[in-house]
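We close this part of the discussion by returning to an individual protein. In the encoding step, the backbone of a single protein was reduced to a row of integers, each denoting a local shape. The sequence in question and its structure tokens are set out directly beneath this paragraph.
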Amino acid sequence: MSRARRWHPSIDKIPGQTYLWLAILIFGASSAVTRKLTQIGAQHFIDGRNPISLCNVLFIGNLCALIFLLPIYRQQWQKKTLKLLSKKDWLALTVVAILSGALIPGLVFQALALTEVNNVILVGRLEPPLTMALSVWLLKEQVNRWEILGAIAAFIGVTLTIILQPSQAATINMGVLRVGVGEFLAAVAAVASVASTIIVKVRISNIPVGIFSTFRTALGTVIFFFAALVLYGSNHFINVFSPFLWQWMLVYGAVIVVLGQLFWLKGLRASTVSAASLAGSFTPIVGIIAAYLVLGEAPTLAQYIGGSLILVGILLSQVGIRPQIYR
């Protein structure tokens, strides 16, 4: 019997869905918390620079996450386990690490610097319908008409959220449309997340969670660091040793990165995929509420219109998977 079970026998009695909902609370609030941290840093400049810049949050936050991940999963990093992984497995792991460990968070953080948190959250809902479409096309997964209708409604909602935004200083011309740079970056991040999810499903779904999480975080952090050096210069990380930054990032890395992942994985193992889908559908709702409570960011008209259609899409999708949840 493990030490955790000896000390806390009641842990095993906690329903899996409880862990899922705790994870959703953490994931949903993450964007608002990230923006709030940068605002706190802006009130404590060091030599005219914000020590809690978005790049520092991503870089140091991941380093702090590794401090917690390595002891938790050290037993999975054994030679006999690593030898079971093929070259194709390592290649897939590397691609996913680049996408989900460096590119996606980098795009999302840059989007947060350019547009409202609610926009980033709502545009991110491109991921579920695109993932479903590719899963049907590439993986031959079966979906019902309710899920298809829900995906279409969500896709239209995201599109309206993007195109109904008021005029912004930084925009991209896309034919007859002018799209805000922040919204565009959030959409690219969603597409990259879809690609990462498909690779995980096809190639590395059987790789131990500890190896996957630790490798993705470590390699993604390294790649992001060198990419930022090339793009922004060596002075960009000049405040990475600030105690003020590290005290916040230790909490951020432990709660947002590590605890959120652990709750989600613990919940997945004790719940059905459909139950996880139901919980995950509420991430944008939690995010919008968090943006209002943490940042005082009330939804705009475009966000109300697009968000309402996204909510309709969520409800339609849940009608489709409800029989699977209670099967």
Residues 1-10 have pLDDT under 50 and may be disordered. The longest helix spans residues 87-114.
